Each structure stands twice: as C-alpha cells, then as structure tokens.
UniProtKB/TrEMBL annotation, chains A, B:
The keyword DNA-binding applies. InterPro entries: HTH_LacI (IPR000843), LacI/GalR-like_sensor (IPR046335), Lambda_DNA-bd_dom_sf (IPR010982), Peripla_BP_I (IPR028082). Residues 6-60 form the HTH lacI-type domain. Signal peptide: none annotated. This is LacI family transcriptional regulator. It comes from Phyllobacterium sophorae.
DNA sequence: TGACTAATTTGGAACGTTCCAATTAAAGTT
DNA sequence: AACTTTAATTGGAACGTTCCAAATTAGTCA
C-alpha cells in the first residue's frame, strides 16, 4: 500500500548499516560478516523489498535481458523453438523479451528498436521474410551480440544457427527413391527464403543423382502452412501424370497435404507417400505418424540461446556459423515400398 | 565502437543546449522552439543516440513493460493467445516479457519474481496447473495490475477473463443431441482445472436437460493434448457399449481423437461425431474440418491486453471479471444427422 | 522605452543501484 | 603496548533520465 517501493536505503536504515553493506549482501559478497548478513536478509523479506534491476543496470551497463524475435509464433515449429530458448535463458538467470513479428519487417524493426531502448544484452532473431542485413546492423555495430536462427541473413556479420536443410532434403528424397518412387513432388513454400531454396536444392540433387529427370511442375508453391498444403494437393490433382509422393517444406504443409489427400479419397501413407520437415511434436502422434526430417526445434532453440549467452559473457563477439545436423525419422506417412509406381498415375 | 553509449548530455553538448531541452525534445514537448527541436533531432540520428528507457523508468517509476506468463506455448491455443496480446501490447508502445511456465508452479513463481525485479507495469497470467491465489498476492498488493486469463484463480482479488465454458459445452451437446446422438462421451482433461469442470458441467446439464441418463464411464480422462486424444479413443474402444460422439476438452484432444479413430478404421465425422473446443486456426482447414466451440484465442488475448492496459493507465485497479461469450461453429467433424443411433454400437 | 506577459531554456535534485577509495574494527605479532 | 594484518563497513560519485522552480529571452502594449 506504500506509495513508494522500499529501497536498499530503507532496509539499511532499519538494519542500522549503510546502503553499501546491504548492496554487498544482495550480491552475496563474502566480505560481509555473517551476523550482519543474517540481520539484513531478515529485514529484506520482512519489509518485502524487491530488487530494482533497472537501477542496477543503469550503473553496470550490462543487463540480464535478452530479446527474442520470432517471425511466427502460431507455427508450432517456432513456438517450440521459443520454448527451447526460454528454457536456457531462464535458467541462466536472464529474462526475455519475446516478440512476434508476424513476418512483417516493419513490426520487426519496431520491436528491435524498442528492445534496444530497454537495454537488451543480446538478441536472437528468426528473421521475417524480407529482412535485410541492414536491419540489424546498428545493433550489431554497437556491440550487442546477435544470433540469427533458422533463416539465413546474407551479409550480416553475426552468428547464425541453421539446420542442414540441404542434407535433410536429400536424405528424404533418397528414402523415397529407395521405396520405389519415381515421380516425387516438392510441396509448399515460396522462392524468397533460403530455407526453401536449400531444401529444393537437396531435392533436385538427390533426383539427378538417381538419374531421375527433373520436372519443374512437380515443385508446387504454396503458403508454408497447413492451409497451403491443402491448396498444393488441389493443384496436384489437376495434373495428368501425378506424383506418387512428396517432400513437404515443413510439417505444417505435410499435415495439410494429408488433409487434402483425404478429401480426394486418397489415404496418406498408402496411396501417396509424404515426408515432412521439422519434426514438430504432433508429427509422432498424428495418424499416420509423419515421416519427417527432424530438426529438433526445441534443441535448436536451446543451442541458439547458449550461443548467445556465450557471446554475452565473453564480452567480445566472434562470429560463428553453425549448421546443425538433421536426421530422417521414418514413420508411417511415407508408406510401404511402392512396386510399380509407373502404374499408379 | 565507442566504449560508452551516447547519452542525452552528449547531444546536448553537441547542440549547444542543456540536457533538459534535449529531454523535452525527446518527449515531444510543445514547449521547445521549432528551430532548436530540429537541430536536436538532427543530432540525435546523426550521433546514433538510443534512448535509455531504464534510466527514465528509474526516475518516473512507471515502466512500459508488461509481463505475460503462459502455461504452455507449444499448445496453439496459448500461442495464439500470446500473439493476440503481443499485438495490442506492441501497438500501445509497450514491450513484453513473455515466459512459458510449462505448467510448473515453481518456474512460474521464478519468472514472476524476475519480471517484478525488472519493473513490469502489469502482468497477464495464464496460470500453471496448481497455481494458488497466494502466488500473485504480493504482486497485486504492491499495486501492480494483474489480469488472469483462461483459467480461474479462486481467491485472488484480480481481474479475470474467462471464456464461457459452461455455455459452450452445453451448446455443443445440444447440437449433438439434435443430430440424434444419445451416447455422448466427454474426452480429455483432468479434474483439477476449472476449465475441465465447467465444460463437464455444461456437458452433464445438457444431457439431463434432454432426459438422457448420465454414464460416468463416458467421461474419459486424458492429457489435454493430441496424444491424450489418441489415448482416450483406445480406452473407449474397450467399452462394450460405445459412444457415438464426443465433446473434447479442446481442439488438440479432438485432433487426437480423429487420429485414434482412424487407426481403428473409423472415419471421423461419419462413424463418429466429434466436437472440439477453442477453434484453433487449424480447425478450419483440417479434414474433416472440425466442429468446435470457438473461443477466439487471439481475440481473447487482445481483450486481456486491453484490460490490463486500461488498468495500468487508470492508476487504480478495479477488479473486473469478464466472461467472454463463445459460439458453436458447425463444420464437418460432427457429421450428418444420425438416424438410429441405437443401432450403431 | 519601460513594463508586462508569453515563450523558451536551464540548473540541479532525484530515482535506486554499484563501485571505489577510504575508514574503522578486530585480530594477531612482536 | 605498539604495531601490522586482516576483516568489515562506509560515504559519495556515478549511471541517464525527468521534473520542478527559476532564469532568460522574445514579444506586446501603452
């Protein structure tokens, strides 16, 4: 009910010591006598004192806040990524500004500026589509560590943490080929992201490696969402010669593809092989369980946060680029071996 | 590259005015002469000055930070809720600490303490299971507005924003009854949450209202997740006399129920009617599209944030309890009218 | 021009911490 | 007892802002 919160000097007065001593107690210094420490700590809970980290930051210039900006929280991949970051950030005694840019560069710029004003010690950014290196230049220039995750940001001289999209896509396609598929589509995504182009590159290279001719119609663009997957299938159904399997840009698209196939009375995993990308939690429990390239979003979030904290503590920032490896998790959605895919059109 | 960030006095010196004038310019005061304002603003971008909101807070005691604690970000319902909050918080010029408690009261306590030290102006809490009124008492006592959402927190004298779970469940069951169903299950959830008990109450009341005898076996507990839905179906399949439809605790469970039915070769929406709760974005595009009680999570997040901001600005907090109305969205998963449900066991 | 009002500008205290240099108290050592 | 170490404690400046009362400058009117 007090108008003004109780401060360090209030408890100093109450304990009959100086504010410096109280400060020492607060930071657990061994310099202070056990008896005074005890008395002070007692008063601290008794008076309901709460530490003012803002004031401390003002003096020390190093805050315990990290900023996290994610392009789409409603996509479970990014939600899990955020949860992974949250985990390590919190247990390191930091607290996070977490914002959602909704793929808007403007909004992203705004929140980064606002975070900066609030004195973040570092930033983890999963950039919105269309982000330029310039958007984080001034941040990086002022010595605040930045880690870019998931999507590449060419030209930015900051650390990045990406998954091995190329290898993952290649492994997925090889698996489908091994099952006997020859007409394989790539579904979902638009050309303007590195994630898309890397995965498509893996898709293409695996096909040529197996001597299968490329068919550009089989790369079916759509929104990288569940709804996008449904749309892609609609498009595919119009083809005279249809694919027998597809690698999807991500799990969300893959689930959409399952939905779309069902409305066309094709059973996913039996009449058509599907592989997703990311390995979101639902991938395991879905029916059919989704074969997918596991990126381990939560683990990736953890690694990103660890990388950032390392740089914050190190003081100087040496730019690091990590590509996390990825593995194909075979479940039901890619189906049993297909004997004569030529006859399935 | 400067060791120390440039401050208000740096640009004051450069512009040949006092720091007070610069401060005035910063807050857009009409007191300052246009010419000096112009000069000062010029120097501000030129020297790359960034406002230190922490220092300002120290002086003013009212920050532009709100805390948001959510029990499970990986559940799309809560992710969307968070996005809704983010939207209004950001456009009001605030920035948010967003944390994920993962249903752990300990962790929740920690992050709330940490947020408090960082000087949040208010808190929105979607409490972890097992949270007690006491956990936010000291916060509320110190005059910081708190809004509790989604889950009730009995005994806490703070504002709450809940959806009308009772009415929603009742409407859903009435609809199923109208389609001819008589043996209707309730799937998912555990007894310790108000959300669960309210929805079950609606379920029960609607059944007795229609003169249908209650069967407690038909309330099938499980984790409130997709995996939980699958598990609930497994349990149901063992019944001698099976339900013909189910209301699910939430959409995640409902999707799981669809999965579970499919692995038992029952087509969701045809052989078995399913109604979800929440209306997550995927509900619309799923196949079959999910009939569900729409809670509009994003809208709810927005309302919660607006409520909080109102209280922050008002200065004094008058406790408000809002129950947002809810509506049944009929799509495909509850199926066509069932003629003779007695013969479907 | 002088007096008065309106428009601008400005020192300095204050917010709650940390840190440094300096002081005081306690404990050993001859 | 006089000194040296070691242990504990302490003022006060500093961090970057806001706010107030007061000072300065410009403008207006007789």
């Amino acid at each position: 009910m007090n108008r003004t919160r109780t401060s360090i000097v209030d408890i100093a007065r109450a304990a009959g010591v100086s504010k410096s001593t109280v400060s020492l107690v607060l930071q657990g210094s061994p310099l202070v006598n056990d008896k005074t420490r005890e008395k002070v700590s007692g008063l601290i809970d008794e008076l309901g004192y709460v530490y003012n980290r803002g004031a401390a930051n003002l003096r020390q210039a190093r805050s315990k806040i990290v900023g996290i900006v994610v392009n789409d929280l409603t996509n479970s991949f990014f939600a899990e990524l955020a949860v992974g970051m949250d985990l390590v950030v919190q247990s390191a005694g930091y607290v996070q500004f977490l914002a959602h840019s909704g793929e808007s560069v403007d909004r992203q710029r705004q929140v980064i500026a606002s975070m900066r004003e609030n004195g973040i010690a570092g930033l983890i950014l999963s950039p919105a589509r269309g982000t330029e290196a310039n958007d984080i230049k001034s941040l990086a220039d002022s010595g605040i560590p930045v880690v870019v995750v998931v999507r590449n940001l060419p030209g930015a001289k900051v650390s990045t943490l990406l998954s091995d999209n190329y290898a993952g896509a290649k492994a997925a396609i090889r698996h489908l080929i091994g099952l006997g598929h020859r007409r394989i589509a790539f579904m979902g995504g638009f050309v303007d992201t590195a994630v898309f182009s890397d995965r498509v590159r893996g898709y293409r290279d695996a096909l040529v490696e197996a001597g299968i001719p490329l068919n550009d119609n089989f790369i079916i663009h759509s929104a990288p969402s569940r709804a996008g997957g449904v749309a892609a299938v609609e498009r595919m159904m119009l083809f005279a010669e249809r694919p027998t399997a597809a690698l999807c840009l991500n799990d969300a698209v893959a689930f959409g593809v399952c939905d779309g196939l069902r409305s066309n009375n094709i059973e996913p995993g039996k009449g058509f092989g599907i592989i997703g990308f990311d390995d979101v939690i639902e991938a395991k429990t879905a029916v059919p369980a989704l074969t997918t390239v596991s990126v381990d979003p939560q683990g990736m979030g953890q690694r990103a946060a660890q990388l950032l904290l390392k740089q914050i503590n190190a003081g100087q920032i040496d730019q690091e680029s990590i590509v996390t490896s990825v593995r194909l998790v075979v479940r039901q959605s890619c189906g049993a071996p297909v004997k004569q895919p030529e006859e399935m059109a």
